[in-house]
Specification:
- 16% of the residues lie in helices and 34% in strands.
- It is built from one helix and seven strands; from the N terminus they run αβββββββ.
- A seven-stranded antiparallel sheet has the order 1-2-3-4-5-6-7, covered by helices on one side.
- The chain is globular, with a radius of gyration of 18 Å.
């Protein structure tokens, strides 16, 4: 009974961490490609880089995917993936950057058995330089896939499924969510 309780607690902790990470990814997906309107009917004519949402398949630890997001900074209060307020100094060429990928856990000696890798958040510091921060450990794999539907052609929204597979030692757990973009055409 004690073993089952420990397993249940591990699963609940993993679920809470995965929930937080998936929410951060979802927030970034919804912001991908955002551009400010200069006036009521006049669109910003500045060109936004073509790749505002990029999925690199199988580039991370255990063939995990990498998600890279770019968007302009809104006039409201927006945050990057580690909770920093997005401001002009946390952008490059007027674009905020957020990335998510899995890599080997830092600070662990080679040959030491660890459960999974680290889910990393990539954002810009106050000088516009890339910085990587660990969001959570114990991640076996991150998968991001675009979901295509027949109704998508009529809609400006695109659907993305984010899946985190956690290594819990003697078991694994999978957590997924589907998000709709708001600004991708």
């Amino acid at each position: 009974m004690l073993v089952k309780q420990v397993q249940l607690e591990q699963l609940q902790l993993a679920a809470a961490e995965a929930d937080r990470a998936l929410e951060l990814m979802g927030r970034a997906i919804r912001m991908a490609g955002y551009t400010k309107a200069k006036g009521m009917h006049q669109q910003n004519t500045r060109t936004v880089k073509k790749e505002v949402l990029e999925i690199q398949q199988g580039t991370g630890l255990n063939r995990s995917d990498t998600l890279l997001i770019k968007h302009e900074i809104s006039d409201g209060l927006d945050f990057d993936c580690i909770g920093n307020t997005l401001t002009a100094d946390r952008s490059k060429n007027g674009l905020a950057h957020q990335g998510f990928f899995v890599e080997r856990q830092a600070g662990v000696a080679k040959g030491v058995r660890v459960n999974g890798g680290s889910l990393m958040c990539q954002s810009l510091d106050r000088h516009g330089r890339l910085q990587n921060t660990t969001l959570m450990n114990g991640v076996h794999q991150l998968q991001i896939e675009e979901i295509f539907s027949s109704a998508e052609k009529a809609s400006a929204q695109k659907l993305f499924k984010a899946t985190i597979r956690m290594d819990l030692g003697k078991s694994t757990a999978e957590f997924s969510r589907v998000y709709a973009s708001r600004n991708l055409h």
